[in-house]
Structures are given as C-alpha cells and as structure tokens.
C-alpha cells in the first residue's frame, strides 16, 4: 500500500478536481482531504508528477502495518 500526500495552490482548483477524479477512477481510497491510499504505485506516481508540474507539492510513502 502506498500513500500520496499532496498540496496544490488554491487557484489550481480545476487540477484538484482532475486529480481527485483520476484517483477515484483508479479506486484509491481517500484518507483525508489531500491524502490518498492505493496499491497502484504507477498511478500515484503519474498523479504526483502532474501535481509537481503544476507548481504543487506531492510525496508518496510506502505504508507499513505496525500493529
């Protein structure tokens, strides 16, 4: 499982909608406003790249069950 955490400038609302639609289409799970979980690393990487290309911040973490 991988976690995508991102931040977009407020004026990029259209991009936030696009990103959310891509993630929903690929069955990613919304954890919090800009935090999504998915097993599809390729999809998360493509979304992160799209965000960064549009002056946003995006990071992907590998989730690990602790308890």
**Overall tally of domains:** 1
Low-confidence stretches: none
Order of helices and strands: EHEEHE
For the report, how would you describe the main beta sheet? 4 strands, antiparallel
| Helical residues, percent | 25-40%
Number of strands: 4
> Which CATH class is shown?
Alpha Beta
- Strand fraction band? 25-35%
Structural class: alpha+beta
- The strands making up the biggest β-sheet line up spatially as 2-3-1-4
Q: Tell me the overall shape.
A: globular
What is the fold named in CATH at topology level? Alpha-Beta Plaits
Number of helices: 2
Mean pLDDT, nearest integer? Answer: 94
Instruction: Report, as a whole number of angstroms, the end-to-end distance.
Output: 15 Å
**CATH architecture field:** 2-Layer Sandwich
Cα-based radius of gyration, to the nearest Å: 11 Å
Describe the structure.
The chain is of the alpha+beta class and 67 residues long. Helix content is 39%, strand content 30%. It has helices spanning 13-25, 41-53; strands at residues 2-7, 29-32, 35-38, 57-62. It has a four-stranded antiparallel β-sheet with strand order 2-3-1-4, covered by helices on one side. Strand 2 and strand 3 (35-38) form a beta hairpin. The chain is globular and about 40 Å long. The mean pLDDT is 94.
Task: Give a quick precis of the structure.
This protein is α+β, with helices and mostly antiparallel strands. The protein has 2 helices and 4 strands.
């Amino acid at each position: 499982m991988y976690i995508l955490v991102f931040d977009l400038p407020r004026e990029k609302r259209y991009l936030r909608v696009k990103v959310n639609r891509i993630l929903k289409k690929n069955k990613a799970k919304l954890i919090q406003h800009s935090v999504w979980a998915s097993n599809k690393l390729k999809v998360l990487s493509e979304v992160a790249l799209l965000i960064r290309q549009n002056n946003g911040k995006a990071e992907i973490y590998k989730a690990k069950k602790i308890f």
